Amino acid sequence: MTLFCLGSINLDHFYEVPHLPAPGETILAESHSTGLGGKGANQSVAAAQAGARVVHIGAVGPDGAWAVSRLKALGVDTTHISEVTAPTAHAIINVDPKGENAIVVFPGANMQQSLTQLKTALLSAKRGDMLLLQNETNLAFEAATLARSLGLKVLYAAAPFNAAATAALLPLTDILILNAVEMKQLSEAKSTADLSPETIVVTEGSKGGYALTSKGKQRFSAFPVQALDTTGAGDTFTGYLAAALQEGQSLQDALRCAAAASALKVTKRGTADAIPSRSAVDSFLKAQA
């Protein structure tokens, strides 16, 4: 089984700051570092670290060869990543001493996905494979439409939240993942009873979260850890959840595995490079038993 991800690829700039800046405020950063990021890249890396075969569909600029090499080194198939004229996307990430962040993203090449390349990639898929989507690229609707026609499951992490994009993708989504704020935004636009995905997962940070299915609502717990950087925690959760479901775990077990991976991620600074390995997650879960 293969997990395909149409997703963003960013160069992340991290700035450790004494506090998140207020409007009009200028502060001095205590450190600066860079690394691979983007919701799509993070989710692909997380799923690959969890043990899934992952094919990433994406785009970088002429300056993006390093990102492709890093994805490949982290276990992701990069055959369907194209080079376009726009610069590789980047993100400015401020992180405060409690691990909270404030992020600005320049989308660049992420919004120049090739429809031809997308079709080539997905036509290599087999029925039962899975497609991961977020709101950081173009062609998400086209990808979901084609994936459904080919018998793939569609997992959609509706972030950054966009009401119009989400409304268009909901009828094509099997598994929807949102955080509590995004769920509130969606509920204000659409009744929960009218949502079409068969599974809806809502994450609530340190409170854990819950899943809504035809069998009702089931909660899952978070694992208490000392957070250093929450950037990429949701992407880690999503990638691990997708991989665990693909390998046949029950929803409850997959949620627990994803929550453990997310917990381990926030104990390290960074994004894709800080996502834990499956062996680390399994050891962590064993220690919690």
TrEMBL record:
Cofactor binding: number and manner? Requires a divalent cation, most likely magnesium in vivo, as an electrophilic catalyst to aid phosphoryl group transfer. It is the chelate of the metal and the nucleotide that is the actual substrate.
What protein name applies here?
A: Ribokinase
Cellular component per GO, a single term: cytoplasm
Under HAMAP family, the record lists: Ribokinase
Q: Which residues bind ATP?
A: N179, T203, E204, G205, S206, K207, G208, G234, D235
Tell me the enzyme class: transferase
Tell whether Amino-acid biosynthesis is among the UniProt keywords.
Answer: no
> Where do the annotations place substrate binding?
N10, L11, D12, G38, K39, G40, A41, N42, E136, D235
Which GO BP terms, alphabetically? D-ribose catabolic process
State whether it acts alone or in a complex, and with which partners, per the record: Homodimer.
- Catalytic residues in the record: D235 (proton acceptor)
Q: How is its activity regulated?
A: Activated by a monovalent cation that binds near, but not in, the active site. The most likely occupant of the site in vivo is potassium. Ion binding induces a conformational change that may alter substrate affinity.
Gene Ontology molecular-function annotations? ATP binding; metal ion binding; ribokinase activity
Instruction: State the similarity comment.
Output: Belongs to the carbohydrate kinase PfkB family. Ribokinase subfamily.
The protein's location, in the record's own words, is: Cytoplasm
- What's the Enzyme Commission number for this chain? 2.7.1.15
